[in-house]
Write a structure and sequence with these properties.
Strand 2, helix 20 and strand 3 form a beta-alpha-beta unit. The protein is α/β, with parallel strands linked by helices. Helix content is 56%, strand content 9%. It is elongated and about 90 Å long. The termini are far apart.
């Protein structure tokens, strides 16, 4: 890998007028490297709650089609995730309108993508994550053009290489979620912004195709992810400041028309977005605690350049890796600060630095405003930083462009970090479905019943993630039992108590079973010491087998009552 990085260094250093092919050969090698990293072990990590939600809507289904309030065999869980043909984008949009809080474009695209690969077969998880991975690769091409336009072709190569080996970018690319698609569109919008900036700086007439492309990209982006609104606002503010800095007003009318067109195009979805913003499904975000947005943001910046194993590791490893991550981040920060000052003071690149930095600062101010004014700390969720990550990457590349030693060190650390990410040693899935499955499978020879109490559809998606991981584990170690079952039971206030429903479940005709109850929102004391199952079995709590990984789950050992 060291030799590969060194060769890439030589390729972009060998850019000359007589040998331009070296430049594009280097770009092709970077794209190949990024593709390998993003598609490596694409199905290794288990699907978690949000990815399950993606799968349901992207397969043309909705929550009404799920087997709720019944018991069904654990082996049948993968059957839920089969492609339903003949569904239109309008139907997917209607499903999202009533049962989710997302715009429709990504899910419609995923539906078409998965439809082109049917039958999905046993590799359906890889296929589900492949489109986000592809957009992740496309973003690298986009960032190349951003820095090529803003600084130089060589800077474009450096930006592409930095993003290719960024652990954060690889992590996002392996999520079956709508993060890399809007990030790709934000990168294209930044490219358009840099082209517009060049016209403003040269005091030329705005090229109509640039403005049109910029408008189309922003329209598509607004229908891809709601956080794209933050990026669009940051673009507008940046454009206004650009016009002010350059002391010109000849471009105002063109940009006003383009901006108005983007806003008008989103009006048909405005009633839906207003309803989504008021939904209780958005209340899961943590409350803002004093200066938490500040250190959350700093941690996110660290994860964009280095990721060593610190999750669920022995304390010694966690401390050592954490120390190296912080030390490395401080060193990178010093290199970036010195480099940015140098590039900022150069006349040719001054305005480009100002433009990219303004966009990033405005987005960060929006994040902090949401955190402090609305009490929802979105900075605590690293994946949401996709909104400004392209500008972060562009600035990082520009700052280290002339420091060859720094580039090589950052790239080597990035490659190593990506290896940890794709090996499931960092950026592990929330709620740890794989670990939950291992805990539940403590006695492989004993039948398992997994019961998930749900109050909303997110609880159902969470439980399906656990069920998928458990089904995969039991299948891999050949410990499947014909009596392994799973059930999702309504535990909302208007529904009969969960424990009564268990007693009324139809009997399976077995004398012994391990009952695992997942209870989102429950506390340990709310689990009874004993409960009835099937009307003919007594289940006693196993106090030693209680876990909480974001949510609690408890083991009961059930035995049939002897008559």
């Amino acid at each position: 890998m060291y030799q590969l990085i060194s060769q890439l260094q030589k390729l972009h250093q060998g850019l000359t007028n007589r040998q331009p092919y070296l430049h594009y050969l280097g770009l092709a090698a970077i794209i190949a490297l990024s593709t390998v990293l993003r598609f490596q072990n694409l199905d290794l990590k288990p699907l978690w709650m949000d990815e399950v939600i993606t799968a349901i809507f992207s397969l043309g289904k909705n929550y009404d089609q799920l087997p709720l309030d019944i018991l069904f065999p654990l082996q049948r869980v993968p059957e839920i995730f089969t492609y339903q043909s003949g569904v239109t984008c309008d139907q997917i949009a209607a499903n999202l309108t009533h049962q989710s809080t997302h715009p429709p474009l990504f899910f419609c695209g995923m539906y078409s993508w998965l439809g082109s690969m049917t039958p999905l077969g046993s590799e359906w998880v890889t296929k589900l994550r492949s489109l986000p991975a592809l957009f992740g690769v496309g973003t690298i091409v986009g960032i190349y053009f951003v820095n090529r336009t803003a600084f130089s072709p060589t800077s474009g190569i450096i930006a592409a290489l930095i993003m290719a080996v960024s652990p954060f970018a690889v992590y996002l690319s392996q999520e079956a979620r709508h993060y890399t698609m809007p990030m790709f569109l934000i990168t294209l919008a930044l490219w358009g912004l840099m082209e517009i900036q060049r016209d403003i700086l040269d005091n030329k007439r705005l090229r109509w195709w640039v403005v049109l492309l910029w408008s189309i990209v922003n329209i598509i982006g607004l229908y891809t992810h709601y956080f794209f609104i933050l990026a669009f606002i940051a673009e507008i503010i940046t454009l206004i400041l650009l016009i002010y800095w350059c002391k010109t007003s000849i471009f105002k009318n063109s940009l006003i028309i383009a901006t108005t067109g983007v806003v008008v195009s989103f009006i048909p979805w405005m009633p839906v977005i207003l309803n989504h913003f008021q939904s209780s499904a958005t209340n899961w975000l943590p409350a803002t605690m004093h200066i938490s947005p500040v250190y959350n943001t700093l941690i996110s910046w660290i994860l964009m350049v280095i990721a060593l194993p610190v999750e669920n590791q022995p304390l010694v490893i966690t401390v050592i890796c954490g120390f190296f991550m912080v030390t490395f981040a401080i060193w990178v920060g010093l290199q970036v600060w010195k480099g940015l000052k140098t590039v900022y003071l150069e006349k040719k690149t001054h305005l480009s630095i100002l433009t990219l930095a303004t966009f990033m600062i405005v987005v960060l101010m929006e994040f902090f405003a949401i955190a402090y004014l609305f009490g929802k700390d979105i900075t605590a969720i690293p994946r949401y930083n996709f909104v400004y990550y392209p500008s972060f990457c562009a600035l990082l590349a520009a700052s280290i462009g002339k420091n060859h030693q720094s580039k090589l060190i950052i790239l080597l650390v990035g490659v190593l970090s990506c290896v940890f990410v794709v090996s499931n040693l960092f950026f592990q899935k929330p709620f740890l479905p794989e670990q939950v499955a291992q805990n539940m499978n403590l006695e492989p020879s004993t039948p398992i019943m997994l019961v998930v109490g749900y109050s909303n559809y997110q609880d159902v998606a969470l439980g399906l993630g656990f069920a998928l991981a458990l089904e995969k584990l039991r299948n891999n170690i050949n410990s499947f039992n014909q009596f392994d079952t799973v059930g999702f039971l309504d535990k909302s206030p208007h529904s009969p108590p969960l424990w009564e429903k268990l007693d009324q479940m139809p009997t399976l005709g077995i004398s012994q079973i391990n009952l695992w109850i997942v209870g989102p929102g429950m506390i340990r004391e709310s689990y009874p010491q004993q409960l009835k199952l099937f009307g003919d079995s007594i289940c006693n709590i196993d106090s030693a087998e209680h876990y909480r990984i974001g949510i609690p789950y408890q083991l009961y050992r059930c035995n049939k009552i002897r008559v």
